[in-house]
Specification:
heterodimer, A: 233 residues, Rossmann fold, four-stranded antiparallel beta sheet, 33% helix, 28% strand, globular, B: 420 residues, alpha+beta, 3 domains, six-stranded mixed beta barrel, two-stranded antiparallel ribbon
Amino acid sequence: MIEIKDLHKSYKMGSNSLHVLKGINFSVEEGELVAIMGSSGSGKSTLLNILGMLDELDEGSYDLDGVPIKNLNETKAANYRNKFLGFIFQSFNLINYKSAMENVALPLYYQKVSRKERQEKALKYLEQVGLKEWAGHLPSELSGGQKQRVAIARALAAEPKVLLADEPTGALDSKTSYEVMDLIQKINDEGNTILIVTHEPDIADMCKRIVHLKDGIILEDKKVNQVRASQYV
Amino acid sequence: MRQLFDRDTWREIFQSIKKNKLRTFLTMLGVFIGIYIYIVLSGASKGLDNGFEKEFETIARNSMFVFSSSTSKPYAGFKTGRKIQLKLQDVKFLRQQVPEIMAIAPRNVKGIFGTEPGVVKRGIKSGNYSVFGDYPEFTKIAPKKIYDGGRFINTADIEKERKVCVIGERTQKELFNEDEEPIGGFIEIEDVSFQVVGVHKFAGGGPFDNDSDIFIPFTTFKKLYNTGDNVAWFTIAAYDDADVIKVEKNIKAVLRRIHKVDPTDEKAIGAFNLGEVFKKIFGFSNGLTFLSLIVGVATILAGVIGIGNILLISVKERTKELGVRRALGATPTEIRNQIIIEALVLTLLAGLIGIIFGAATLKLIDILTANVELPYTNPTVPIPYVLMSLFLMVGLGILIGLIPAQRAVSIKPIDALREE
């Protein structure tokens, strides 16, 4: 599903440049649940941004579902993001003046899906995250956990190839975190490919594979026995 | 284009406009005030324009009065201070030598210019009235509204020196009882019996008009007051396309030649040029229209710039939202169009409200001034002006929307998302 070869990325900081990713080789199969771990500055967010086509790579290659991702202009990147990727952010990033359902329907709007179909799908995914009866509520009327579940529903709505989650439980208490992880595991059980950036070991343990980054290289890449979050809920 | 006709686009836009009502209101206020001022000002100046037009509809636009006085320079053996008398024969020369003249009416009068008014009697009623000696041609220059059943002096009256007269409304009221039919009735002017052939309606206009006057044929006047071929003044109308100032100069020159006056003597032959006055008045109202155009356009411009400014702030505020939208698959074009359409909707909405309020204000002014003596009638803004201002707003709205729109897409989604 994801194929990365010899990926380099550096940022210019004034006169000197900062080499953040120093040759990453990394691939993800369909249906995997991967945790990308590392301390801050290890390059894990940069890697996720490149995977999310929000940032460009300097060297190396990146194939997503067999499509080489390079030299994208903004419009093409937007179309690929819309087609291939679903984003889950640490701070949820819901649009505050849109109801839960409208937020979930937004990626479908950019896919030019008809209004009726959008609403049906949005409701379906809200139901999947257990928030069907909250469809008409604004984000400000929802708890943190509920907001993240709406965000997950939004990421799912576009039916992407890969879900990218950047510290999805970073802003939540541990109980809510486990609820969200339980939801993510269930989604993974249905065959969705998910990448999670986290620095919390207990969250990483709930994935099927852990990739440790340090100073821009992969330190460790191991498959783990998944801890089911449902036992904590 | 697809975006423009998509109901969802409009929902998106109205949602984001509705989100911050105060900001939207303040944004629109500038354009609203601009278009409002423009509509009211140009409507008012149009009203003034119409008012002047109505005020002077009873007299030809490019007409003038030409009269004589005493010379102020010696010439051809004559001493200075010689009294010049205009004569009936002058008409022929003027017509020959000044082809721009459309109509020329020699006039005589008793009752103004320091002459004694005519003594008019009817039975036991009597009074003093201005008596004019006129040619039918006079009505070509200053049309008189004659009440039904009556007429003005005609050529036959002149030829046969008929003792007929046209009286003013007030003359009629003072000399006739209310139930009496004035047409066909007789009045005595200087003890000579005249038959009334018409009653003219009073209409404000020329400087010597009023409603207590009596018009009699020029030839009859001549016999009645023994004025010979003397003419008090000429009322002259030039053709519409003639330059009245030049015509006036030519007429004066011809008269100076006939009466042997120094060509540089400005005092001997005088003229009051209505055409010139009209030019000034209409120049004034044109200037007013132009001024209101400038003021209006400037305020609209200021308002539109205000919209651009506030949208710029709005884009900055929504950086994160726009980043999220782009992460979810919005293309830069879609984001840009959304901002531009927002600017456009705000401008147009504010503009339309301004036009409606402006029109209502004009209507109100019209109602309030209906009974006031003001040269002010039917204040309207010509439709092309309204359309022009609308187009201006659309154009400026799009143009000004481009700035925040470009700003919105120039931020990379990753930077937009990072912003807290």
